[in-house]
Design a protein that fits this description.
Radius of gyration: 28 Å
Number of helices: 0
Helix content: under 10%
Distance between the termini: 52 Å
Structural class: mainly beta
Number of strands: 18
Largest sheet: 7 strands, mixed
Strand content: over 45%
């Protein structure tokens, strides 16, 4: 070989998936075909959040630096020149990642991205060597089993709805539709089933044709000027049977959906923050001169603990 060949490897981590707070170890391997005069060899670790969108107003841009580190492999010399022998040269490195690094994310209007770059500066060569860049993934995990968190406690949300019945020019109120949604826990992992229990007391005149349950990822992009853009991504859409009208007793509807592989809840990230919700709607048939449908919704937010590459994050109790 007549060219300089470079490679960056993470120790026992071929997928390059790391965790916030982890001690990241690896090595850079460089093949020099001949003895080479080198001014500097170093590796950098960078992490950046960025978002941009255009809603007809001045373009909104958000940017923040999460990680900016440099590790030099060669000692500083007075003449600024080091001769690196021909062959394969290995340079081990390690860096302590901050526990506050947010999870990597790639979205429609922005991203949180981490890159490691290997730089070689030759002192007696006219050739320009472009740095070798490798993407790696950061995951900021949530400990769902922590005794100080509420992730293992149930969540209950109640809602009362009252319809108006129209007969020509007259209007009269009907009894309520009482709904409650219950989740057995507030935190979930990929591959785990979200079992939602809906309890309905339909004392109104309206039969509910069906219930629709949506599993939603909500991403908030924040620009430097404070403007925000919210993106809603429907991850799952399930429909169930409805319930009868004017029924004073409780009617139970159970809905189950699996959590796919997703980044963890990361709503505190400055530029791209994400959270997850269960939204359930019921569709009713209204008695008006011309028949129409009416939809109501209820939001149940909850955190989820997931990672990229279809990998389940296993957390043991402390």
């Amino acid at each position: 070989m007549t060219e300089i060949v470079c490679e960056i490897e993470f120790d026992e981590n071929s997928t390059r998936v790391c965790y916030s707070g982890q001690l990241l170890k690896g090595q850079a391997t460089i093949y020099f075909p001949v003895d080479t005069h080198v001014k500097a060899i170093y590796v950098t670790f960078s992490g950046r959040g960025f978002c941009q969108w255009d809603d007809g107003e001045p373009i909104s841009i958000g940017s923040i630096v999460y990680l900016d580190e440099r590790l030099d492999f060669l000692p500083q010399r007075p003449d600024g020149d080091t001769i690196v022998r021909a062959g394969h040269n290995k340079y081990p490195f390690q860096i302590q990642l901050s526990r506050t690094l947010p999870t990597s994310y790639e979205g429609t209007y922005g991203y949180i991205r981490y890159i490691t770059s290997l730089h070689i500066e030759c002192s007696r060569s006219a050739q320009t060597l472009h740095p070798l860049e490798e993407l790696f993934t950061i995951i900021k995990p949530l400990n769902l089993n922590s005794s100080s968190s509420s992730y293992q406690t149930p969540m209950m949300v109640r809602k009362y709805v009252k319809f108006s019945q129209f007969w020509l020019v007259f209007c009269c109120k009907t009894d309520d539709i009482k709904m409650s949604g219950r989740l057995p826990v507030r935190g979930y992992c990929p591959g785990q089933a979200i079992n939602l229990k809906l309890t309905v007391i339909n004392s109104s005149f309206l039969p509910i044709l069906h219930f629709q349950v949506l599993f939603i990822q909500e991403v908030t992009y924040t620009a430097n000027n404070g403007r925000q853009k919210v993106e809603r991504i429907v991850l799952s859409d399930r429909k169930t049977a409805g319930c009868r009208a004017d029924h004073p007793g409780r009617q139970i509807i159970n809905v189950s959906t699996l959590v796919p592989s997703l980044p963890p809840t990361n709503f505190s990230a400055n530029v791209c923050g994400s959270r997850y919700k269960i939204e359930h709607k019921h569709l009713c048939f209204t008695r008006i001169l011309s028949s129409r449908y009416r939809s109501l919704s209820e939001l149940i937010p909850f955190p989820t603990n997931c990672i990229h590459h279809q990998t389940l994050l296993k957390i043991r109790p402390a």
